[in-house]
C-alpha cells in the first residue's frame, strides 16, 4: 500500500494509513515531503524513535532535526531557526512541544508541506495509548495554513479508532488506506504453562537467530537475562533505567548480531529496524491486543519464517484483573491527587500554568503515604483529562554556566595553567556560557582533550566548588508539564461519564487478551490465532494461517 498512500498524500488529500509493524510507514511520509518544497512537521511521542529517524535521515544526506523534552531553551531556539531558514526537510517534535509559545510563534514562519502524525492511535480517546497532547495537532493547521495536508500513520487501529482519528484531526474527507494485516511468515504460538522460564529457554534454543523476550518489569528483565546466560543463551537486558550510553551499546550489539537475545521491557524495539528477528517471546500477558500485535510484529520483517510466542498461566489472569481494579481509582481519590501534586510542587491556587518540574513518583508517594501504583493511575487519568503531561524517564543532559565575569575568569585562568587550558577548550566547544546554561557532553569533552571522562567530571566539580561555574550533572528523571493554573476543588472538573466510558473500554481490551489466550471457539471466534487477531482489527475475511499452535494442533 505504500504507493497508494504516497500518491494520496502527493495529491494533497488528508490521509490515514494503517500498515502493520514493519510495513514501512516512514517511507509513506518521507517521499511526499522530499518531493514537495518546504519542511514536514512530524509529531511522534517516542524520543528514542525520533532520534533514530533523524539520524537515519542524516546518514542519507537528508537534513532533519528534532525538538523534545530535556533540550535547553537555546538548543530549541537554534533548532527552530534552522527549521525556518536552514533548508531542512523534516522537523520531528514531541506532542507537548506543540503548546509552547516559542514553537507556535516560529512554526508560523515555516514553509510547512505536511503535518505528519506518527503513532496516530495516540490521538484517539479510544486508542490503547491515548495522549491528550495529540489533540493539539489539529490546531497546527490554523497556524501553518488550511491547505497543508495531514498524513496520519499507525500500525494498530481498530475501525472505531480509525474513525476517531479522522474526526479528531478534522479530515476534510474520509480517506483511510489500509493494507492487509496478515503476516503469513509469522507463527503465533500460545502456551499455558507454570514453568515459564523453561519455556523461554526452549523458545530461544528452538529458534536460531536473533530474538526479543518481553517482560513487564525492569528487575525481571535483569533476572531473566541472567538466567538465560546461566543456561548458555547469549542474552542481555534492556530497560529505561539503563544509562543512555549503555542502552546504545546494548542496542547496537543486538542489531549487529553480536548479541542474540534481548530481554526487555516495552521500552525496547520502537523504531529499531532489524529485519532478521526470528522470534519474539512474551513472558507476561500484555494489557491489549494492540500492543501485543505491535511487539510480536517485530519478528520476521525480512519475510522469513519466524515465531511469536506468548506464555501465560492463571496467575497472569489474576494480575490483569488486579491491574483493572488499580487502573481506575475512585474519582474522589483522583481529585485529591490533583491537589496533592500542586502541594508537592509548591504551587499555589491560580499559579503554575506552563510550569515544568522534575517529578519522582516514589518520592511523591512516600511524601503523602500513598500506594504508588494507585497514585500513578490517578496521575495518568488527570493527564488524560488534559490538566498536565508527564513524560517517562528521560535523559536530562549535564549543563554548565559561568558564575564569574570574563575579567575574573582571566585572573583564575592565569593562576593555574591546567585550568587555563581546560577552560579555554570549554569556551571553544561551547560558546555563550556567560549568558545561560548550556548542555554539555562530558564524553565529548574528554575525547577532545584526550582525558578520561572521570577526570573531566572531577575538574568540572572542582570548578563548581571554586564558584567559577555552575555545574548540573546529567540526571534521569520524568518531567511534569502543567497545562493550566492550579484549580480549587470546586472548579476541578473530571467527567464521570468519560471516566466510566474509559473504564468500560479498558475492560473490553483486557477481556480480548484473555479470550485470545484462553481461546473459547465459537462463530465469532475462529480457532486460528492469526484470524482472531485480524478480526480484532476489523479484517473479517482471512484464511487460516496453518502455522499457529491451533492450526498445527
Key phrases:
single chain; 553 residues; alpha/beta; Rossmann fold; Arc Repressor Mutant, subunit A; 4 domains; seven-stranded parallel sheet; six-stranded parallel sheet; 17% strand; globular
Quick overview:
The chain has 553 residues and is α/β, with parallel strands linked by helices. The protein is built from 22 helices and 21 strands.
SSE topology:
Layout: H1 2-10, E1 15-18, H2 25-35, E2 39-43, H3 47-59, E3 64-67, H4 73-85, E4 90-93, H5 101-107, E5 112-117, H6 137-144, E6 150-154, H7 159-169, E7 176-178, E8 186-192, H8 196-205, E9 210-214, H9 218-230, E10 235-238, H10 244-256, E11 261-264, E12 277-282, H11 289-296, E13 306-312, H12 314-327, H13 331-345, E14 356-358, H14 361-368, H15 372-384, E15 388-390, E16 394-396, E17 398-402, H16 406-415, H17 417-429, E18 438-440, H18 442-449, H19 453-465, E19 469-472, E20 475-477, E21 479-482, H20 496-518, H21 529-536, H22 549-552
Parallel strand pairs: 1-6, 1-7, 2-4, 2-5, 3-4, 5-6, 8-13, 9-11, 9-12, 10-11, 12-13
Antiparallel strand pairs: 14-21, 15-21, 16-20, 17-18, 17-19
Helix pairs in contact: 1-2, 4-5, 12-20, 13-15, 16-17, 18-19
- Distance from N terminus to C terminus (CA atoms, Å) equals 34 Å
Number of strands: 21
What's the domain count?
4
Portion in strands: 15-25%
Assigned CATH class of the largest domain: Alpha Beta
Explain what the structure shows:
By secondary structure, the chain is α/β, with parallel strands linked by helices. It folds into four domains: 2-178, Rossmann fold; 186-312, Rossmann fold (3-Layer(aba) Sandwich); 320-394 and 477-504, Arc Repressor Mutant, subunit A (Orthogonal Bundle); 398-473. Helices cover 44% and strands 17% of the residues. It is built from 22 helices and 21 strands. Helix 1 packs parallel to helix 2 (25-35), helix 13 crosses helix 15 (372-384) and helix 16 (406-415) crosses helix 17. It is globular.
